[in-house]
Write a structure and sequence with these properties.
It is a single chain. It is elongated, with a radius of gyration of 22 Å. The chain has helices at residues 6-17, 26-40, 141-145, 147-157, 159-162, 165-190, 200-204; strands at 47-53, 60-62, 67-77, 80-83, 85-86, 103-107, 110-113, 122-129, 192-194, 208-210. It is 37% helix and 23% strand. By secondary structure, it is α+β, with helices and mostly antiparallel strands.
Amino acid sequence: MAITTYAELQAAAANWLVRGDLTARIPEFITLAESRLNRVLRARLAETEAVLTATVGARTIPLPAGFAEPLALWIVGGAEREPLRFIEPGLLGASSLRGEPRCWSIDGANLAFERPCDQAYGFVLRMLVKFALSDAAPTNGLLSDYPDAYLFATLCEAGPFLRDDALAGAYEARLSRAIDEINAKDARARAARTLVTDTPPRAAAGFDITRGI
């Protein structure tokens, strides 16, 4: 059967477990599986950009829903956007002089700057989002591209209830292989690639395509 939605993932897990007494626990297993996947995967398919707006006089902006990890931040001015420098929270300082932020960090549940904003600046935050399926959010990039990782992560969380060490070990092995393959594929996608072209002048000019952030 296809595994493309939260409901289909639950049905697939039930089919593999063949344990009617565990069916009601499957949403719990999926939540635990996502917690694990969020720790071990930094896949490009989890990357997204969020548009944020500062409040005049404030040094912080609440992080977007689903935020998992920051990748980059730009301040937007007209059609241009300029990258800001990330520094550790302890080095950020706390100037009371309002102005345009030049540095940023993550402070708890907030995006933080080295100074209060003197106007309502716009920002673009590139970040990793959490894998979190629900009835309201029935699919995501990981489930669409790698349903096996989701399924075996879910079955691994059911392992303590199976009382079958061999079977639980087989699920762990399948999940480990899936994670390794996802990470390897993601690493290849991020590596610099050279564009092959049959146009000598462009090839001689050394046009490269760099994929990744």
